[in-house]
Amino acid sequence: MAKKLSKRYRELQGKVDSAKLSTIEEASTLVKDLKSTKFDESVEISMNLGVDPRHADQMIRGSVVLPHGTGKTVRVAVFARGAKADEAKAAGADIVGAEDLVADIKAGKIDFDITVATPDTMGLVGQIGRILGPKGLMPNPKTGTVTMDVTKAINNLKAGQVNFRVDKKGNMHAGVAKSSFSAEQIAENVTEFVRAINKQKPASAKGRYVKSCALSLTMSPSVKVDVNSIVDIK
Q1: Once rounded to an integer, what is the mean pLDDT over residues 27-43?
Q2: Residues 6+ apart with CB under 8 A from 202
Q3: How far apart (Å, rounded) are the C-alpha atoms in residues 189 and 45?
Q4: Band of the pLDDT at 185, cuts 50, 70, 90?
Q5: Best exposed site among 13, 19, 206, 227 by fewest CB in 10 Å?
Q6: Strand pairing category for 95-97 and 76-79
Q7: Between vectors from CA 126 to CA 123 and to CA 130, what angle results, nearest 5°?
Q8: Contact 230, 195 (CB under 8 A)
Q9: CA dihedral defined by 62, 64, 70, 74, rounded to 10 degrees?
Q10: pLDDT, mean of residues 63-89
């Protein structure tokens, strides 16, 4: 049985021409006009890529630091020992530990949004992979979160780094701004995100790489972006 749409949502749909394809700038302006809630909604990008993630070289995964951040306060937990633990604390990590942090997580205490780990602690982190993995919290070298440069990792995450990963059907979703941002800020963040995706285009991918792209707010319909207008963003 189809879910009945609310009156508010139907009114928002009336503002969107579902047949129109917009540039990033046009979509960023329109999506701001779709705000209808009291809270600061996230601006979300949805893309469908012409890749087959079953092939390792077509698994699109990485990170990008957005020029205007995400508008979210991010709590960072760092797995590190000794001098690197001290460095992480000095860099502004919210939680730093090793065996003690693993014990807290096993006990169900997960008071953070993202993790960073030095390579020498990954054996330890592996003990809680079954807890962190399903939550998308495992540190990974491809997103810069397994590194000896913990200061850079923490600074990037606090500044608005967004991690992305394509699912098995080629879909990708990410929060790239807030509805309180200006249309220009939204457009610049979206452009930087698209640039990061385009840079990862695998040589083995056949046909169109970006098959569809749309912007939406947390509680709004989506605004379609013309993929022809973003294919050359490098």
Answers
A1: 94
A2: 51, 57, 58, 60
A3: 10
A4: very high
A5: 19
A6: parallel
A7: 175
A8: no
A9: 60
A10: 96
Tokens encoding 16: 């969107």
Closest CA to 75 of 129, 127, 113: 113
Q: What is the DSSP letter of 179?
A: T
3-class DSSP state for residue 213? strand
Contact in structure between 31 and 216 (CB atoms under 8 Å): yes
Q: What was the pLDDT predicted at 15?
A: 80
DSSP alpha helix (H) spans, the chain = 7-13, 24-32, 82-90, 99-106, 122-125, 129-132, 150-159, 183-199
When pLDDT is averaged across residues 175-186 and rounded to a whole number, the result is 97
SS3 139: coil
Which of 79, 95, 102, 50 is closest to 231 using CA atoms?
Answer: 50
In contact, 227 and 198? CB cutoff 8 Å: no
Task: Please tell me whether residue 89 adopts helix, strand or coil conformation.
Answer: helix
Please say if the pLDDT value at position 17 is more than 90. Answer: no
Residue 71: burial class (beta carbons within 10 Å; 0-12, 13-18, 19+):
buried
* Distance set, CA 27 to CA 9, 23, 117, 204, 214 (Å): 18, 6, 37, 31, 8
| Helix extents (H) in 33-119 | 82-90, 99-106
- Specify the pTM: 0.86
SS3 72: coil
The tokens of 214 are what? 């749309």
